[in-house]
Amino acid sequence: MTGTAKTEEKEFVEIYNLAVVEIPTNVDVARADENDLVFKTKEGKFAAVVRDIEERSTKGQPVLVGTIAVETSEYLSQLLTRKGVKHTVLNAKEHAREAEIIKDAGQRSAVTIATNMAGRGVDIKLGDGVVDAGGLYVLGTERHESRRIDNQLRGRSGRQGDPGETRFYLSGEDDLVRLFAGDRIKSVMDRFKIPDDQPMEAKILSRQIEGAQKKVEEQNFVIRKNTLKYDDVLNRHRQRIYEQRRQVLDGEDLSEQVKLWIEEVVEDTVHVFTAEESELEWDLEALTQAMSQLYQTEITAKELREDLGEISREALIEEFQADASDEYEAKEEEFGAELMRELERYIVLQVVDMRWREHLENMEVLREGVHLRQMAQKDPLVEYTGEGERMFTELGRIIRSEVVLHLFHAEIAPEQAEQQLQQAQTSNGNIHYEHETSAGAAAIAAAGGGEAVAAGVPSAAGVVTQPVRASEHEKLGRNDPCWCGSGKKFKKCHGA
Question: Do 245 and 349 meet the contact criterion of CB atoms below 8 Å apart?
């Protein structure tokens, strides 16, 4: 509930979907809102302000002076001090005395200077004899860009049916007047040789000033509305990322999600090295090297050709996905299912948080420069939305690639598994992993969105540099020599 929302009704409806209902006052307003007085210069305006304050105070009427800046309130205070006018300043610098100053602002002959930020929404109680003197007189030294702020200042006077009076003093040098009518006002005053301290007063002039305020309000409304539209784009990204984080923080089983990511990363990597239409141009050597950087595999291009016979992109994807799946199962068998789930949650959370921070920075850079695309006759908001979605898709690929990479390179000694599990449950884990930044690993990064290999996730301490099997009798991989001694790969022998 507020007393000054009517002037902002359009914004409340269009942006916040809130209707504005005007409730009649309990007691009829007895306040007199006088026309603005417009002076040629600021010096002339403030000279007239000081005279008006001095006259009102002398006859016992309390005066509340509203300024738009602390500097203005201090300048006016100096002028009143030179004239010997007793006054108090309320400019949000003296928090401890604000209540006391406001309490006395309605007393006989009191003069209070207040900035827009101080004393709003307070009933100023009138002292003895003040009603007979005309009630509280509110004097504004400048129009604000928003009519709502001016109405808040006017509303200090005439509360609960009390008498009161308000008036604004303006000059052709004030920011609002200068932008919309300053030159015309000065030319008129020069033509009629009006002195600097002699004001122009007309109802039509006050309406023109309010019209200028409406223009500024409309401009600010458009800016805020566009800001909301830009924020909505990022908010959609935020909702999706936070949903992913919520799953991790709630302790959900991520194994199925991780398995899907492994398949997607493998598929992306295969596509990087088989992008050409002709199979003769495919770089299988680089592909096998990239896969060996992704997970523990020793398969070569020659073995691929022997195993698959006729090489196709689909066959390569199927072969490497099956191989990576075996490696994942071996990793889970080595760590144990419970520790593996903790490891997955820890890595996902760390990668998501790190990359999300980078995404926010990248979106801010995009936001700062996207308006330049107007020069190419493009809508900045449409460009921001489209480019932002592409960046978010890229973010997803980077996250998948890094999670899979770190998971495959995580190592922990079997005898420490139980101890590490307890630590992981209480302090996000003490799990170590590493990866190499070779050409093959960089290719995986390209498949996963750019920087997957180059940046690591912080670990607690003690990185194990070379992956080792926990046991010589663990489950064999598909490309390992078969245990029977036949010389064939396990997948071609007892693993068939």
Answer: yes
